[in-house]
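Why do we bother with holo predictions? Because pocket geometry can differ from the apo form. Keep that in mind while you read this record for zinc ion.
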Amino acid sequence: MLGRKGRPVTGAHRAYRIGILRAGGPGDRRKLAPPKVADRGGGRGRPGARGNDRGAVTTHPTANAGAEHPRPPTGEEMPMSEPDQKTLDEMAERARAVGRNAYIPYSRFRVGAVVLTDDGQMFDGCNVENASYGLTICAERNAIFHMVARGKRKITAVVVCTPTPTPAAPCGACRQVINEFGPDALVVSACDGPDVLKKRLSELLPDAFGPANLET
Ligand SMILES: [Zn+2]
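The structure, written out:
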């Protein structure tokens, strides 16, 4: 998601956050492993850099053979099973790690994201800003495009980490892109605080426009 560290949250955004936090039951507030490093964006990310290999994709190029799908996923195979807590914790840790590579000279708002595919692979991404501002890409979409480039097409879960006191859900643009590959994906937002947002994409983007709408 985009954002600017320290910028006041708008009324609508605040109401949305509160709504999400209050709407969910206890199950929506699972506590993930606390961050080992409280990185609050003090350092400037290096474009294209990777601080470590934890967030690196292990997919071998040859593993993509046969992954070409002329048709986008339709979600007909839903519902998907929910990843176990160990997997979600690993995703959160990877998201925090890749977030350290965020290129954020303008907002200083560091975000890391990891997507989990239906075959258990993880792909990561960080937000990458641009001097033109409008070309900035969110961590979530960066991770998804990373996944697509490796031949994968189905998302079962997304974990986003922000160095904030409270969790923040993906922006509207990212919700739309998640819907393309995981209309019922589990979306988890972690932060430096104890709260965790945990929703299905279908809850975050109800009545979404998707591939099925283009069928004639
Ligand atoms: Zn976004």
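The chain has five helices and five strands.
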